[in-house]
Design brief:
The structure holds two protein chains of two kinds. Chain A contains six helices and no strands. Chain A has one domain: Four Helix Bundle (Hemerythrin (Met), subunit A) (Up-down Bundle). Chain A is elongated and about 70 Å long. Chain A is mostly helical. By secondary structure, chain B is an all-alpha fold. Chain B has a single domain, classed as Cytochrome C Oxidase, Chain A, CATH 1.20.210.10. In chain B, 65% of the residues lie in helices and 1% in strands. Chain B has a two-stranded antiparallel ribbon. In chain B, helix 2 runs antiparallel to helix 3. Classes of the chains: A mainly alpha, B mainly alpha. Chain A binds chain B through residues 1-3, 13-16, 21, 24-25, 28-29, 32-33, 35-37, 39-44, 46-47, 50-51, 54-55, 131-134, 144-145, 147-148, 150-152, 154-155, and chain B through 106-112, 114, 172, 176-177, 179-181, 183-185, 210-215, 217-219, 221-222, 225, 229-233, 238-241, 244, 248, 251, 520-521.
């Protein structure tokens, strides 16, 4: 009986009593999910920090092989995409769906640019035999440490790149939804949730970039 | 209470649609709970079969039934299947899914589609696990320790890892769902301190699942990465550190023990309150002890590494912390006993299971203190003492709690009563079979019998034969229970809404409940377990 009054609200899923409860639940759910993501990356970052301390000279030497300029460009690209994502959330709250689609398009383009640059970085590593495994080759004393560095580099940036790819797909689906329903009033919460996810992906890179590319021989 | 059968025409969640498709696409938390129940029962039988293989081999000192290689595979698959594909989802995904929304007066969990997706993730993970079994099984031990799982295994390790990894996402999704549901979906008037203790236990469990599961996911991901790429992240020959793998593994896997036992503790609180017709003694303490276990449980993982080359100082700290985590469990145990004290005790089947849980969990918990003492652990580490200890927690605690809960809520779930005498006989047989299996193992371990060996000196045979005999009784008991429960789901006496005269929202709705759980607007006006006021009329 309680649901009769709200049954007709098309934006309200059946299990919720009202829109406020629904919005709160979705946002809390997203935050709890992001907590799991923090721990997901956390385990690997722990491994990186540990091995960095165990093989300090090797890690300092290995980081020279990364191109900090390309990494820097990618940082700017991702930060830009985070800004446009925030603008998309704002446009969604203003119910300006044209603007929202524009900002989401820029976000997706930035994400794709990030992946293209990453592709060029990866292929350079392949050419220089810096990919762990049978073809790995590195002249000098610190073979093992350097191979560990690159193993963790590929695991960390690969996992992050996978998250970027998922982001592209999710934003794509969101754009399709917004475009399809552009004539009617829409809930801004899905955009907000995708935004939270995208900012998280950005923040992970904010940690990975200095850790992998910049710190090198700095003792911390 | 006179059993008033529901008229056949009454719509409930079971008879609303009988098609297979309606089950496989259902968003109803109650049906998803049933889907989990069917799936984990199958995994339970597979893992149980492995246990009987192991025990049959150990009936004689020689390796006559299995080769040492086959034996390694048997105990690994026993652990992998029963932990990842049975125990971790058991109480939360079956009873939690079914009961949590009803207990808090909600129509469903916060994210019904995610809930169904969890089950599919679990099934995909389980299928990958079964593929690893069909390809010959893996021989790494359930812990996937490097280098057993990396350099020294030619078995389909990556399949099993992929299975545990994907099933883990199912557990994470369920945990996220429960946390949000408990925070946001409670009925008006249902404050935190009016929640049933089962809900508190589910909440603490979900917190552990959210914080822990991603870490094991990344750990076994790195093991698979090492196998696939040849990078030596845990291989000392290539600069890696196998101890790091153990740290990361137990950072999750010790709290995972609490993922298994906490929900069973929640079940026990409900069963004891109902069977004593009394409010749980020290409700707040029992509620907070669940959270305390969840938090402190994250700080004790190092007790698995006492002999792995961890520093003595770290060992000392982890030893003290491990003693501390026993305190909230002791609080619960004392409070359950105090709840029974001067209660109006109903010696029904759920009470039999609750008492079995209390006794076995007590032994399991106390023997844990032997292992958390640094000096005794050096003697007992990797012996049958450890095997017996954790089986007392995982079988004597978690599984008995789960099966007890199944009996307690079976009338609600199926709308049918199981035969009461069979229920009691089942509890007695499980208790006897279990004790016969694992009590001798404490002695074996203390005498120096190491775990994971398939041959042993002849003087151990009598204890091993006792253990094997117990395992067969346990296997027979479990089979009996599965048979009479399945039988009663179709042919049992129709169940009244509240066969135990218990308190709680789930007992105020019909058995089985309608799809929307309640036909009226739920408003809660009284504390949990408000038994003493219930003289005569309805609250």
């Amino acid at each position: 009986m309680s649901t009769e009054t709200q049954e007709h609200d098309p934006l309200l899923a059946h299990q919720f009593e009202d829109v406020e409860q629904q919005t709160d639940s979705y946002v809390l759910g997203m935050w709890v999910f992001l907590v799991t993501e923090v721990l997901f990356f956390g385990g690997m970052i722990l491994a990186f920090i540990l091995y960095r301390n165990m093989y300090f000279p090797a890690f300092a030497e290995a980081h020279q092989k990364l191109d900090w300029r390309l990494g820097g460009v990618n940082t700017i690209v991702l930060l830009t995409s985070s800004f446009t994502m925030a603008m998309a959330v704002w446009a969604s709250q203003k119910r300006d769906y044209g603007k929202q689609l524009m900002f989401l398009t820029i976000t997706v383009l930035c994400a794709l640019a990030f992946l293209v640059i990453k592709y060029f970085e990866y292929s350079a590593k392949f050419e220089h035999h810096l990919v762990p495994g049978t073809n790995f080759h590195f002249d000098g004393q610190n073979q093992n440490g350097v191979q560990l560095f690159f193993g963790l580099y590929f695991a960390l940036t690969g996992l992050h790149g996978f998250h970027v790819l998922v982001g592209v797909l999710v934003i794509g689906v969101l754009m399709f939804r917004v475009w399809k329903l552009r004539k009617q009033e829409q809930d801004y919460v899905p955009t907000e949730l995708v935004g939270l996810y995208w900012h998280f992906v950005d923040i992970v890179w904010i940690f990975l970039y200095p850790m992998l590319y910049l710190l090198g021989g700095v003792h911390i | 209470m006179s059993a008033v059968a529901e008229p056949k025409t009454e719509k409930n969640y079971l008879n609303v649609d009988y098609s297979i498709k309606s089950w496989l696409t259902t968003l109803d938390h109650k049906r998803i709970g049933i889907l989990y129940l069917v799936a984990i029962t199958i995994f339970f039988m597979v893992g149980g079969f492995m246990a009987l293989l192991i025990r049959t081999e150990l009936a004689t000192p020689q390796g006559d039934l299995l080769s040492s290689d086959q034996y390694n595979r048997a105990f690994t698959m026993h652990g992998v299947v029963l932990i990842f594909f049975f125990l971790l989802p058991s109480t939360p995904a079956v009873l939690g899914n079914f009961l949590l929304p009803i207990m808090i007066g909600a129509r469903d969990v916060a994210f019904p589609k995610l809930n169904l997706a969890s089950w599919y993730a679990f099934m995909i993970g389980g299928t990958l696990g079964v593929i690893s079994l069909v390809l010959g099984g893996i021989d790494t031990g359930w812990t996937f320790y490097a280098p057993y799982s990396s350099n020294f295994s030619n078995t389909p390790v990556v399949w099993a890892i992929a299975g545990a990894f994907v099933a883990g996402f199912g557990n994470i999704a369920t945990a996220v769902n429960f946390i949000v549901t408990i925070h946001k979906m409670r009925a008006p008037g249902l404050t935190w301190f009016r929640l049933p203790l089962f809900v508190w236990a589910q909440y603490a469990t979900a917190v552990i699942g959210v914080l822990g599961t991603p870490v094991i996911a990344i750990t076994i991901f790195l093991v698979a990465f090492e196998r696939l790429t040849g990078m030596g992240i845990f291989d000392p020959a290539r600069g890696g550190d196998p101890i790091l793998m153990q740290h990361l593994f137990w950072f999750y896997s010790h709290p995972a023990v609490y993922i298994m036992i906490l929900p069973a503790m929640g079940v026990t609180s409900e069963m004891i309150a109902a069977a004593s017709q009394k409010r749980v003694f020290g409700y707040e303490f029992v509620a907070f002890s669940s959270l305390a276990i969840a938090i402190i449980g994250f700080l004790v993982w190092g007790h698995h590494l006492f002999v792995s080359g961890q520093s003595v100082f770290a060992g000392l700290v982890f030893s003290v912390l491990t003693f501390i985590v026993a305190i909230p469990s002791a609080i619960k145990t004392f409070n359950w006993v105090a709840t029974m004290y001067k209660g109006n005790l109903q010696m029904n089947t759920p009470m039999f299971w609750a008492v079995a849980f209390l006794g076995l969990f007590l032994i399991g918990g106390l023997t844990g203190l032997f292992l958390s003492s640094l000096a005794t652990d050096i003697h007992l580490h990797d012996t049958y003492f450890v095997v017996a200890h954790f089986h007392y927690i995982m079988v004597g605690g978690a599984i008995i709690g789960f099966i007890g809960g199944l009996h307690f809520w079976w009338p609600k779930i199926t709308g049918r009563m199981y035969p009461e005498s069979w229920g009691k006989a089942g509890a007695i047989m499980v208790f006897t079979g279990f004790s016969l299996t694992f009590l001798p193992q404490f002695v074996l371990g203390q005498l120096g019998m190491p775990r994971r060996y398939h041959t042993y000196p002849e003087e151990f045979q009598i204890l091993h034969v006792l253990s094997t005999g117990g395992a067969y009784l346990l296997g027979f008991a479990m089979t009996t229970i599965i048979v009479y429960l399945a039988w009663s789901a179709k042919y049992g006496k129709p169940a009244p809404p509240n066969p135990w005269k218990a308190k709680g929202l789930e007992w105020e709705t019909p058995s089985p409940p309608p799809t929307e759980n309640f036909t009226y607007k739920v408003v809660v006006t009284e504390p949990a377990y408000n038994y003493h006021k219930d003289s005569g009329g309805h609250h």
